[in-house]
Amino acid sequence: MKRVLVVEDNAELAFGLRNNLEIEGYGVDVASDGASGLQIARRDSPDLVILDLMLPELDGFRVLKGIRESRLTMPVLILTAKGEESDKVRGLKMGADDYVTKPFGLLELLARVEALLRRGAPAPAANEAFGDVAIDRASRTVTRRGQPVELAPKEFDLLIALLARRNAVVSRLDLMKNVWGYADSVVTRTVDTHIAELRRKLEDDPGAPKHILTVRKVGYRLKA
Asked: What is the pTM of this model?
């Protein structure tokens, strides 16, 4: 699931964007000021940021500058006031990928989001690795130190979900949605059980893992 961060201080507009993006199948986080938006972008590395320019705490330009100075390369779609041509040009020069002028049509915005995500998506890697573990997505096989490791289908899917957000924290709820297709806090223990199996099969010391890490009270992180 692609994740979109919406940084917008207009609560009604933010709610509408979140609702429609979730209908389209995206995971959505919302920040109501620039400082928290930049913090979330740095922490979670979303797949795309929708960024208003007029924000409390930090304005959109400073948020955009902070994102790019942090070497984050996700597409950024800026929201600009009607007729502010200089803001559009400044935003693009600072590293924004596209802009939409307020008031905007929802279908146009969704089309631009889809295009940016498609353009920014890396080519699928047939082989990926962390530590001494190699993953071949095409054949759904895993090897460790050159030896095959048998993973159950959901264990493999869970590993890929962590790999897609490597070095970023992924909540148990997000893993439930991405791997099992539903969310129910009562059964998030399912995630913990599968994580324990992945550690048993892929870590030197499952009790003190070096790669598949627990983030207390949040979820897990794959340290590459």
From this structure: 0.57
